[in-house]
């Protein structure tokens, strides 16, 4: 196991109670616009649970619990209502993803994309890339908006593994949009920070009498509710060739032919050995190979022998990141257009050799843009059959960037800006191409190839460092999941170590020796994301989660 065992059945939820509703498999499908009830300042009441209306593939329970970890309590509740009524982890992940796109409109949604890793019990893992692509004319608009893949991705997951009717999975999101929910402190912060004021300007749902809505105010999104209702009743094709497509193609950079031609990429996740475990992570053009290379290089440098958080520990992980970051710049790109040497980059023997050649001066070689707030959103789901989903969704920069575009109540992405911010020979725009980006949904396997940890985080360029810190603490140092997630984070770029807390005297001295400086950032700057992780203990049949204090994420664990 990568972390100490946990036996808590239900913990960490900021809701007073997650209501486990009575199964309704004999009931007719829920009306697509059936409302939820919510009171200002309170979390909305649970919606009617989706019914299992398709014939599920029977899976004998291997666990005594199921769980959802997501960026917002309402998304956790949406996923838990599905699991408690017979849906599987894929169903719950879809419901949670749509729900979180309503309550975190700045981070993900219909106008964006994402990626996921599915690890079914006793079957081969599958990676899904439903990120945005360059339009067929090959032109990147000034807004950076690409052809969105979120809806197609949810549809692909549902077709491959879903058990609950598509329309039913959208009901929690429809209720949250139609009846509203109280604005949280983090949403209020995002509305008044960086791109927020410009993004919500002209969007009346975000405003009250003469001012933007504030924390505690109710946010009702009628246009988004109508869009989601159409998507529920007419199906996912409505977004690409139907009624919703007519709205989406009004956006700069989106044309009907490119939208209709969008395809989800199914692939094998990249994998590599680390300690006593195997790491599965997102396939190129996402940085799963960089995360694995970083972990393997750090292990070769001796991070497993260093006290977590010590100067040696920080140096080992940071030097390992420099090697991985250089590999991103040298090799990473869309594998449909360039060859990515995945086997070489994830070879522990080769990475051990690179560790012997590491140069502390490489800390000033990054060609990346300065650190920015860590956008995107992540969720992890495990059901009692042992099916695990690790999913990261995004519209790229918060609100879709400086040229935010909204249509149908949701915001469009600026994913294609990644071709400019990661301007390398292997990452150049072409029709249908996906850019290099930083989302890295990840699963850790035990020595029997069973998923023991699902993990991911928002955080942009910082994501590999965020995940490597947590995984190293658990896998090599046997820290609990709670300890590992709460531990201070750091990221080295251009000779500057960005940290959450003031360096200790030992670390400060080491930074002087290495010629690095430190930059302390506050939690409010949202640099270091929010880890959503679930750990599985097959000996006890229990699942453990933890709430990352950096944002308002939470988790819930229930018993079948």
From TrEMBL:
Please name the Gene3D superfamilies in this protein's record: 1.10.246.130, 3.60.20.40
Q: Which residues form a coiled coil?
A: none
| Annotated InterPro entries | GGT_bact (IPR051792), GGT_lsub (IPR043138), GGT_ssub_C (IPR043137), Ntn_hydrolases_N (IPR029055)
Highest taxon of source: Bacteria
Signal sequence interval, chain numbering: 1-26
Keywords annotated in UniProt:
Acyltransferase, Hydrolase, Signal, Transferase, Zymogen
Enzyme class at the top of the EC tree: transferase
This enzyme's EC code(s): 2.3.2.-
What are the boundaries of the region Disordered?
33-56
Query: Tell me, what is one Gene Ontology molecular-function annotation carried by this entry?
Result: acyltransferase activity
Please verify whether the record's keywords include Coiled coil: no
Protein family: Belongs to the gamma-glutamyltransferase family.
Q: Which PANTHER family match?
A: GLUTATHIONE HYDROLASE, GLUTATHIONE HYDROLASE PROENZYME
**What's the protein called, per UniProt?**
Capsule biosynthesis protein CapD
Task: State the species of origin.
Answer: Occultella aeris
């Amino acid at each position: 196991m990568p972390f100490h065992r946990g036996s808590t059945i239900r913990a960490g939820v900021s809701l007073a109670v997650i209501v486990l509703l009575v199964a309704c498999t004999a009931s007719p499908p829920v009306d697509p616009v059936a409302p939820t009830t919510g009171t200002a300042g309170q979390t909305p009441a649970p919606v009617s649970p989706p019914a299992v209306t398709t014939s599920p593939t029977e899976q004998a329970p291997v666990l005594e619990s199921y769980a959802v970890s997501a960026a917002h309590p309402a998304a956790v509740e949406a996923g838990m209502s599905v699991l408690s009524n017979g849906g599987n982890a894929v169903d719950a992940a879809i419901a949670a993803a749509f729900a979180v796109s309503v309550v975190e409109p700045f981070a993900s949604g219909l106008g964006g994309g994402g990626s996921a890793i599915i690890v079914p019990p006793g079957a081969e893992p599958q990676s899904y890339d439903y990120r945005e692509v360059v339009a067929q004319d090959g032109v990147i608009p000034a807004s950076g908006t690409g052809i969105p893949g979120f809806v197609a991705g949810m549809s692909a997951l549902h077709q491959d593994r879903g058990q609950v009717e598509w329309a039913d999975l959208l009901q929690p999101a429809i209720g949250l949009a139609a009846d509203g929910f109280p604005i949280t402190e983090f949403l209020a912060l995002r509305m008044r920070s960086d791109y927020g004021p410009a993004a919500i300007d002209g969007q009346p749902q975000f405003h009250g009498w003469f001012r933007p809505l504030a924390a505690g105010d109710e946010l009702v999104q009628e246009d988004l509710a109508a869009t989601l209702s159409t998507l529920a009743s007419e199906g996912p094709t409505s977004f690409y060739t139907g009624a919703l497509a007519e709205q989406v193609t009004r956006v700069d950079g989106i044309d009907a032919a490119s939208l209709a031609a969008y395809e989800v990429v199914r692939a094998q996740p990249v994998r590599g050995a680390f300690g006593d475990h195997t790491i599965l992570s997102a396939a190129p053009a996402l940085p799963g190979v960089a995360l694995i290379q970083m972990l393997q290089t750090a292990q070769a440098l001796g991070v497993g022998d260093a006290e977590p958080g010590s100067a040696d520990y920080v140096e080992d992980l940071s030097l390992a990141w420099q090697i991985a970051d250089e590999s991103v710049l040298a090799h990473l790109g869309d594998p449909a257009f360039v060859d990515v040497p995945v086997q070489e980059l994830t070879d522990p023997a080769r990475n051990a050799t690179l560790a012997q050649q590491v140069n502390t001066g490489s800390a000033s070689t990054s060609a990346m843009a300065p650190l920015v707030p860590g956008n995107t959103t992540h969720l992890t789901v495990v059901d009692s059959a042992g099916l695990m989903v690790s999913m990261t969704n995004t519209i790229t920069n918060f609100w879709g960037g400086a040229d935010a575009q909204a249509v149908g109540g949701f915001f469009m992405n600026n994913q294609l800006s990644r071709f400019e911010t990661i301007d390398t020979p292997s990452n150049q725009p072409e029709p249908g191409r996906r850019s290099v980006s930083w989302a890295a949904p990840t699963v850790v396997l035990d020595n029997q190839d069973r998923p023991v940890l699902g993990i991911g985080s928002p955080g942009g360029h910082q994501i590999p460092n965020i995940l490597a810190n947590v995984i190293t603490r658990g896998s090599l140092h046997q820290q609990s999941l709670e300890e590992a997630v709460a531990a201070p984070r750091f990221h080295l770029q251009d000779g500057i170590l960005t940290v959450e807390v003031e360096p200790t005297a030992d670390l400060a001295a080491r930074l002087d020796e290495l010629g690095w400086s430190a930059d302390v950032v506050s939690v409010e700057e949202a640099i270091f994301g929010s880890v959503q992780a679930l750990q599985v203990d097959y000996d006890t049949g229990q699942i453990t989660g933890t709430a990352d204090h950096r944002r308002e994420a939470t988790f819930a664990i229930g018993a079948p």
